[in-house]
Amino acid sequence: MNILLAKRLTSIFLSLTLIITSTNYTSPQVSANNKKSKNEITVVKELVGERTENSNTYKSSDTSINREFLMM
Length: 72
Prior knowledge:
Layout: H1 2-22, H2 28-39, E1 43-46, E2 55-60, E3 65-69
């Protein structure tokens, strides 16, 4: 009797685990953190030393460098 109960509980547990992992569920808290991190990137300063006649260069808060080309 105990072995049969253990097998049933194990099969239910594994079935639920399979269902939960296959639905690609993300918690609302994780989703909110991802949205915040995407919106937090801002321009920190202009890199004057890398400025040319036709472009401006900016450093972003995520340490990336963005170059803006001016069209004439």
